[in-house]
Amino acid sequence: MTVRYRPNIIITGTPGCGKTSHCEALISGLNNDDSYSHINVSDFAKENKCFESYDQVLDTHVVDEDKLLDLLEVELEKGGRIVDWHCCDVFPERLIDLVVVLRSDNSNLFDRLSKRGYNEIKLQENLDCEIMEVILNEAREGYQPEIVIALESNSAEDMDENVDRILAWIDNWVKDHQDGVTNELDPDLKAKLEAERDE
């Protein structure tokens, strides 16, 4: 049985909401403690060739989630991983301790994504995603409600407040879990899932 002594956190949200900036600020706020690391999943997928295809219309790669998760699970079992991606509900619930969904006003998103050169279809899809709260809903459906929080990300002040709040949460988590937490499925849940599979 493997145990981790640092929490795993997902920082998610629509592209352009400030995920990477938040993650980098968190790592800096942790005083570059080597037991924590920032995983930008888009970069990780590129480095490890975790792509199935390329979507010409949306101008983006389609990720091979099975290959990606096989590689990421090894990292998550170590603990102290701050995961930066626009998807969140694909990660094993047993390995995630906090899911932060960043929210941003559409006027801010429009400006940020336009500066990135997003084509009109890709831009509109992301704006619609934010309006419909797609990522927030996925987070709430994929994880226990008590570990999912939504934070506003419209300004540098918002980011500073968010990072301070997450750093305080990390400090409390470490104090509350001095004996670590298991990476294994709860035995009762495992038995239930196996029974359902056998039906």
TrEMBL record:
<keyword id="KW-0808">Transferase</keyword>
<keyword id="KW-0067">ATP-binding</keyword>
<dbReference type="GO" id="GO:0005524">
    <property type="term" value="F:ATP binding"/>
</dbReference>
<feature type="binding site">
    <location>
        <position position="20"/>
    </location>
    <ligand>
        <name>ATP</name>
    </ligand>
</feature>
<feature type="binding site">
    <location>
        <position position="21"/>
    </location>
    <ligand>
        <name>ATP</name>
    </ligand>
</feature>
<feature type="region of interest" description="LID">
    <location>
        <begin position="115"/>
        <end position="125"/>
    </location>
</feature>
<comment type="similarity">
    <text>Belongs to the adenylate kinase family. AK6 subfamily.</text>
</comment>
<feature type="binding site">
    <location>
        <position position="16"/>
    </location>
    <ligand>
        <name>ATP</name>
    </ligand>
</feature>
<dbReference type="InterPro" id="IPR027417">
    <property type="entry name" value="P-loop_NTPase"/>
</dbReference>
<feature type="binding site">
    <location>
        <position position="18"/>
    </location>
    <ligand>
        <name>ATP</name>
    </ligand>
</feature>
<dbReference type="Pfam" id="PF13238">
    <property type="entry name" value="AAA_18"/>
</dbReference>
<keyword id="KW-0539">Nucleus</keyword>
<dbReference type="GO" id="GO:0006364">
    <property type="term" value="P:rRNA processing"/>
</dbReference>
<keyword id="KW-0963">Cytoplasm</keyword>
<protein>
    <recommendedName>
        <fullName>Adenylate kinase isoenzyme 6 homolog</fullName>
        <ecNumber>2.7.4.3</ecNumber>
    </recommendedName>
</protein>
<feature type="binding site">
    <location>
        <position position="116"/>
    </location>
    <ligand>
        <name>ATP</name>
    </ligand>
</feature>
<keyword id="KW-0690">Ribosome biogenesis</keyword>
<feature type="binding site">
    <location>
        <position position="19"/>
    </location>
    <ligand>
        <name>ATP</name>
    </ligand>
</feature>
<keyword id="KW-0547">Nucleotide-binding</keyword>
<dbReference type="GO" id="GO:0005737">
    <property type="term" value="C:cytoplasm"/>
</dbReference>
<dbReference type="GO" id="GO:0016887">
    <property type="term" value="F:ATP hydrolysis activity"/>
</dbReference>
<dbReference type="GO" id="GO:0042274">
    <property type="term" value="P:ribosomal small subunit biogenesis"/>
</dbReference>
<dbReference type="GO" id="GO:0004017">
    <property type="term" value="F:AMP kinase activity"/>
</dbReference>
<dbReference type="InterPro" id="IPR020618">
    <property type="entry name" value="Adenyl_kinase_AK6"/>
</dbReference>
<dbReference type="GO" id="GO:0005634">
    <property type="term" value="C:nucleus"/>
</dbReference>
<comment type="subunit">
    <text>Interacts with small ribosomal subunit protein uS11. Not a structural component of 43S pre-ribosomes, but transiently interacts with them by binding to uS11.</text>
</comment>
<feature type="region of interest" description="NMPbind">
    <location>
        <begin position="40"/>
        <end position="63"/>
    </location>
</feature>
<keyword id="KW-0698">rRNA processing</keyword>
<keyword id="KW-0418">Kinase</keyword>
<comment type="function">
    <text>Broad-specificity nucleoside monophosphate (NMP) kinase that catalyzes the reversible transfer of the terminal phosphate group between nucleoside triphosphates and monophosphates. Has also ATPase activity. Involved in the late cytoplasmic maturation steps of the 40S ribosomal particles, specifically 18S rRNA maturation. While NMP activity is not required for ribosome maturation, ATPase activity is. Associates transiently with small ribosomal subunit protein uS11. ATP hydrolysis breaks the interaction with uS11.</text>
</comment>
